[in-house]
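Go through this chain for my students:
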Amino acid sequence: MAIFPQTQASVQPSSGTAEPVTAHPERPPALRHIGPNWYAVVMGTAIVAGAGAALPVHVPGLRAAVTVVWAVSVLLLAAVLAARAGHWLHHRDQARAHLLDPAVAPFYGCLAMALLAVGGATLTVGVDVIGARAALAADVMLFVAGTAVGLAAAVVVPFLMVVRHRPAPGTASPVWLLPLVAPMVSASQGALLVPHLGAGQGREALLLACYAMFGLSLLATLVVLPLVFARLVHHGPLPLALTPTLFLVLGPLGQSTTAVNQLADVAPGAVAAPYASAFGAFAVLYGVPVMGFALLWLALAVAMVVRAARNGMGFAMTWWAFTFPVGTCVTGAAGLARHTGLDALTWLAVALYAFLAVAWAAAGTRTARGLFSGALTAAPVPPRPATARTR
């Protein structure tokens, strides 16, 4: 979800030259350029299932459809995990180069979010297929792994940006939000597990830990987001292929709204009455203004994408930025509809989900085509320059 390695030359080490790729029977060349950004495919698919299950309306056939999508997300997670394992096993030089490249390292947050998104969808959708006990066990395993990876990425990636990456002034990108959003996803997905713990210290500890991760992610986002907007104002639009990454800003906005609403749902059974009711009020008082800003940013991002499309923007893996961030806004709007009873919020969730479904189908179709042709596993190329009509 921002500077995707397959769309730009900066996937190579920041200070190095292009490295030769030699064919070797023990080193699959197709895996060399499978970067951590590929987890966005898993995230974007799992959120279609999870957001569909969260919609506050009944749509005939939707439950069956999202169950199929959930199954696809599980298969995709297994495939990408295997591909990334092969990448680290056979192409360690490239893997280390990715970690030390400021354009690629933030995508390690996508691994955490992919694990968490599939885990949450398993508990809410996959339960119909594998049963309650297996779904809960799978979600716990994926939640623990995803949270550990997300918290590590939230510390390690900013540390590397300071001591190794040293990005130049004016290069701030929405991709910087990726490792910071992962703990927010843990906050919202952890809410699903709170009722499954016995009443007492454990349940309250998990609830408050989720609120702590909510705060961690929110405050970090408030530090980075002004840098992203300043980059746009002072240096102009992003390159054409990277324009869809503007949708990444919706991620922390929608996910934080989702988190406070889902945590408010389970607070009454975890904390004392005064705090439980306060958490319920906070869900609305926080969620409504943030959703308003999310809609403002959505309008800005759509306008920039339309401009880029008119100037020749083609398909790139950045199109997956149209999926997961929008999906978080669906679940955020659904949560607000649940707590306020407003039909307007219900239909907002439905409209955003329709956008999500179309975006997922478009990105998925073009990605499959690129995989079969080999274009998406080839060495990265520089972004396509803008045409003369740039305003």
